[in-house]
Design brief:
The protein has 281 residues and is α/β, with parallel strands linked by helices. The protein has one domain: P-loop containing nucleotide triphosphate hydrolases (Rossmann fold, 3-Layer(aba) Sandwich). Helices cover 34% and strands 22% of the residues. The strands form 2 sheets. The chain has a 6-stranded mixed β-sheet, with helices on both faces. Strands 2-1-4-5 form a 4-stranded antiparallel β-sheet. Helix 9 links the parallel strand 7 and strand 8. The longest helix has 18 residues. The structure holds adenosine-5'-diphosphate (ADP) and magnesium ion (MG). The site of adenosine-5'-diphosphate (ADP) has 12 residues, from strand 1, strand 2 and helix 4.
């Protein structure tokens, strides 16, 4: 596969421009590098070990400060996200719920640095997203973030395996093929690795998209209505998969969803109504 030519067609979030560090080989359970709460180091230890990324992220992985997104339309100015403030801790599962058109996808894009706010700031792992340029944001995402789009956004000319390998190949990881195959097996698609997206069902494509988002070991997974296009049974197995990955690897989940069952499984629910975000209690 020619990386140079395919890279130009990629969405920025699909490009993992930095080497993936310490990718465990083998099965997904081997990815579980996040310390459990009982292993959390003291503040003094943290101070001594600036390189202990997992521990330093434990407290807070994302901070949203006064995020506002305005757009100008033919009908005048529209405020899509209105002065949102919240933080998310590492390992938390957060549901973002709200009616269609309330601003959920826009909020998710702003949190991942895929969209630029009119005002406000988002920090991921202490790094201020909008102080970075687009290239810097892409590198940060490559290091820490996975994103599952509502529309999957698989590349049609690549097989399932190649789609999942792509973020690893772009980072120059040596055994991308084996790692991609392992995670595809983990999502139950070992018999579909050579299929192209159009040869896969919606649920299978969604699983490939989730495998692609997870293969770089993100600390933070954003998913926009991950069960929205799926039948009930496939949707349930997708939810199980997301929470297994959350448990096994301590991955923070930020899930936009209409699915009340999925929202109930999350640790927290943020509700958005006409761009105004509130914590549901
Ligand atoms: N770039 C844009 N220009 C104008 N309106 C937009 C733009 N992006 C989103 N919107 C509008 O903002 C509202 C929220 O959109 P969105 O975040 O996609 O909502 P949700 O994901 O909750 O359905 C919708 O009314 C949508 O039409
Ligand atoms: Mg949406």
């Amino acid at each position: 596969m020619n990386n140079a030519s395919t890279a130009t067609t990629l969405h920025p979030s699909e490009i993992n421009a930095e080497p993936v560090s310490a990718l465990a080989s083998g099965t997904l359970s081997a990815f579980g590098t996040t310390p459990t709460p009982t292993e959390t180091p003291s503040d003094a230890q943290l101070g001594q070990s600036a390189t202990n990324l997992d521990a330093s992220l434990k407290a807070e992985i994302i901070r949203v400060v006064g995020i506002t997104k305005r757009v100008t339309t033919t009908d005048g100015e529209l405020v899509i996200v209105n002065n949102a403030h919240f933080t998310v801790k590492q390992g938390e599962a957060v549901a973002i719920v709200g009616a269609s058109g309330s601003g959920k996808s826009t909020l998710l894009g702003l949190m991942a640095g895929l969209d630029i706010p009119s005002e406000g700031e988002v920090s991921i792992a202490g790094e201020s997203l909008f102080a970075l340029d687009e290239d810097g944001r892409a590198k940060l995402r490559g290091r820490l973030v996975g994103f599952v789009f509502q529309s999957f956004q698989l590349l049609p000319s690549l097989t399932a395996l190649e789609n999942v390998m792509l973020p690893l190949e772009l980072s120059g990881v040596a055994d991308a093929s084996k790692r991609a195959a392992d995670i595809l097996a983990r999502v139950g698609l070992q018999a579909r690795v050579k299929h192209y997206p159009k040869q896969l069902s919606g649920g299978e494509q969604q699983r490939v998209a989730i495998a692609r988002a997870f293969v770089t070991e993100p600390k933070l997974l954003f998913a926009d209505e991950p069960t929205g296009n799926l039948d009930a049974k496939t949707g349930r197995s997708m939810i199980e998969l997301l929470f297994e990955l959350n448990r096994e690897r301590g991955t923070t989940l930020i899930l936009v969803t209409h699915d009340l069952g999925l929202a109930a499984r999350c640790d927290r629910r943020l509700s958005i109504d006409a761009g105004v975000v509130t914590e549901e209690r």
